Amino acid sequence: MTIRFEPEDNPHPFFEQMELLCGDDFYKCYQCGSCASSCPMTEHMEASPRKIMHLVRFGLGEKLAQLNTFWVCATCLCCQVNCPRGIDVARVMEALRTRTLRQKKDYLEPSRQRIAPVSEYPQIALVGAFRKLAC
Ligand code: SF4
Ligand code: SF4
């Protein structure tokens, strides 16, 4: 993944916000990739958990906000269990969701869903989606 730094990229507000939401463990990531290799959702993600951690360490909040990864994350905690640095990657994902929701952006808008498909969704998917919508 090519990372481009734009003049408007100022990481400091992002770091402050993330440290409040999930602590500062993300600085400890050394990009081993164990989180990505153990994640059951990577094939549905636009960037793997390892890449997400890379972008977080660079403070590229706006680029992160364009990716679907933290919405797709199932909070299964496999990444946390397998991280040799003990980083709670799922908590980082939750912080990214919360940060985005506070900007009044979301991934799934319930009022725009058609009734028939919604009734066919797996219940756990709906519970997970609406939990992510609650801020
Ligand atoms: S497993 Fe931990 S140290 Fe390795 S890339 Fe993922 S977050 Fe970073
Ligand atoms: S908590 Fe999320 S990022 Fe971590 S392994 Fe599970 S689905 Fe993947």
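^ iron/sulfur cluster complex. Residues 89-102 form the longest helix (14 residues). The mean pLDDT is 84.
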